[in-house]
From TrEMBL:
Residue span, Organic solvent tolerance-like N-terminal domain: 24-123
Origin species: Hydrogenobacter hydrogenophilus
NCBIfam families: outer_YhbN_LptA
A GO-annotated cellular component: outer membrane-bounded periplasmic space
Protein name: Lipopolysaccharide export system protein LptA
InterPro entries: LPS_export_LptA, LptA, OstA-like_N
Source species, domain of life: Bacteria
Length: 150
């Protein structure tokens, strides 16, 4: 189902194998967080996250524990796209939350809701809407016909 594509949309993955290029108009480093503001663009592999602001919260060892993006949040990786007013990712629990006008797309398939929560460890997702109904659109792939051999 369409929620499975959320797994591929986790920009802030725990694996540190690929470097992240962060760009913004301003950067502020504090003891427990890094704040990117203004035209933020973060690139990791083929995935690109853009937002007005991204805050990465650090633990005592200066490793990321939580990331928040706000304002025109958009993530694109090939045919996969996610949009929201705000997004959060918890590195410990591996939970991704999209808030406000949340939409996840994979080619023609999509899910829309006020809030979409993806629990990576459980491979489970919830879409919640209070101001409008949850909407999904799913196009089933056509399988090739098997020819009868006589």
């Amino acid at each position: 189902m369409i929620f499975l594509l959320l797994a591929g949309l986790l920009f802030f993955k725990l694996a540190i194998s690929e470097p992240i290029l962060g760009e913004a108009d301003n950067l502020t480093y504090e003891k427990d967080k890094i704040i990117y503001t203004g035209n933020v663009k973060m690139t990791r592999g083929k995935g690109v996250l853009t937002a007005n602001k991204v805050v990465i919260y650090l633990d005592d060892k200066r490793k990321p524990k939580k990331a928040e993006a706000e304002g025109n949040v958009k993530y694109v990786e090939g045919a996969r796209r996610a949009f929201a007013d705000r997004a959060e990712y918890d590195f410990q629990t591996e939970v991704l939350k999209l808030f406000g006008n949340a939409r996840v797309e994979d080619d023609k398939n999509f899910v829309e809701a006020d809030e979409i929560i993806y629990y990576k460890k459980e491979d489970r997702a919830i879409a919640i809407s209070k101001s409008k109904r949850v909407r999904t659109f799913y196009v089933e792939e056509k399988s090739e016909k098997v020819r009868d051999s006589k």
